[in-house]
Amino acid sequence: MNRIAVIGTGPGGLTCARILQRHGIDVAVYDSDASATARDQGGTLDMHPDTGQHALRATGLWHGFTALARPEGEQMRLVARDGRILFDAAPPQEGQGNPEIDRGQLRNLLLASLAPGTVRWGHKLERAEPLGDGRHRLRFAHGHSTDTDLVVGADGAWSRVRRVLTDAVPLYTGVTFVETGLNDADTRHPSLAALTGNGTMMALDNNLGFVAQRNSGGHIRIYVGMRTPQDWHQRAGVDLTAPAAVRDALLHRFADWSPALRGFITDTDTGYTNRPLFALPVPHTWEPTPGVTLLGDAAHLMSPFSGMGANLAMRDGADLAHALAEHAAVDDAVTAYEKILIPRSVEAAEGAAEGIDGAFAPDSAEQTLAHMTAHH
To answer: CA-to-CA distance for 226 and 331, rounded, in angstroms?
Structure first.
């Protein structure tokens, strides 16, 4: 089998590499981070049966996943802006739902499963140059280059590999999250921990909202959401590097919300990180191109209100790896894979766009309650 290069060590790229190695196929994974611990990997993920769980079974890592997963994390709670609990769904019985796992734990599980030396850290891709025969030369920021028969763009929202296939770029959704968090929440912040519950708490109303998510180790990640111009902080004269200024600006936005919910702004331990949300245009498609393909956010970046981002990326990685194992020619494998990938991702992206529009709307409280009631 020809040499394959995966760009990016997210769940999708690592899933692809793991399954390729299980089939004896040579693969190298390149990542711009200096090491596996160079940066925080984000929050918690719920693994769905037909996507994330399917991929985990194909990697042979199912038992490792279940040892780390938190089925109780599936609890879903909706809170009104005055602090009343409007909806509270307990997690389904064990083995029947979408158990949660910290993104960092999932990544470490996948990384540990790869053959030593598979991941080349400190390799920031600058460009992929077509060589005219389906092969590509990958040029990295430190001057290193390598040629490959197939380059897999698993390099996220601002993918360099995507530029070979399409001119599409992510667009601002109109919604920004400001991320913060609580450490040792049950001991240090018992009232906020109780309001969050064991899984995810959402309070959404009139283009504003809170999302609080339980992670392992007593940590709760908090996302303070706003439908707002991307440069909201500049318009308000807020220095994003000054926590007190960010806190005061958020409190002003949520001035008429419950003091209990405003505690998610004031009583935090981790500072504030501004995160505008982007998505690729829908539909995002491309013409088949020899020697290159995409998976995950590089192919179908969408809002987190799909609940499908990492799940789809892992299913993408599994489907691509299986296609490469089943077809003698790389191009035949990629064609078969993209016939599945593109329609599936377009459908999910359409749902994600509807999801974020409903979650940050004038009547988002009513829309969200109706949605939760219908689906639980």
So the answer is: 44
How far does CA 105 lie from the centroid of its chain? 14
**Mean pLDDT of all residues belonging to the chain:** 94
Domain of 202, CATH number, reads: 3.30.9.30
Binding residues for NADPH: 39
Q: Rounded to the nearest 5°, which phi and psi values hold at 364?
A: -60, -30
Task: Please write the tens of the pLDDT for every residue from 184-229.
Answer: 999 999 999 999 999 999 999 999 999 999 999 999 999 999 999 9
With beta carbons less than 8 A apart as the criterion, state whether 159 and 298 touch. yes
Q: How many domains does the chain have?
A: 2
Measured in Å, how far apart are the chain's first and last C-alpha atoms? 46
- Which of 279, 302, 333 is where one domain is finished? 279
Degrees, nearest 5: CA angle 316-341-58:
30
Q: What are 186's two structure tokens?
A: 């049950």
- Regarding whether 46 and 60 lie in a shared domain, the answer is yes
- Same domain for 236 and 316, yes or no, is no
Binding residues are 39, 46, 103, 297
DSSP 8-class letter at 137: E
Round to whole Å and give the CA distance between 41 and 36.
Answer: 10
Residue 371 lies in a domain: no
Residue positions forming the annotated binding site for FAD: 46, 103, 297
pLDDT along the chain (376 residues), means of 10: 87 98 97 91 90 97 95 91 92 73 95 97 96 94 94 97 97 98 96 95 97 95 98 97 98 97 96 97 95 97 86 98 97 97 94 93 90 78
* Non-local CB neighbours of 255 within 8 Å, separated by 6+ positions: none
Domain identity same for 17 and 148: yes
Cβ of 28: how many Cβ atoms within 10 Å?
18
Quote the CA–CA distance of 277 and 301 in Å, as a whole number: 10
Cis peptide before 243 (omega within 30 of 0): no
Domain residue limits at 284: 4-71+101-169+280-358
Q: Are residues 213 and 327 in the same domain?
A: no
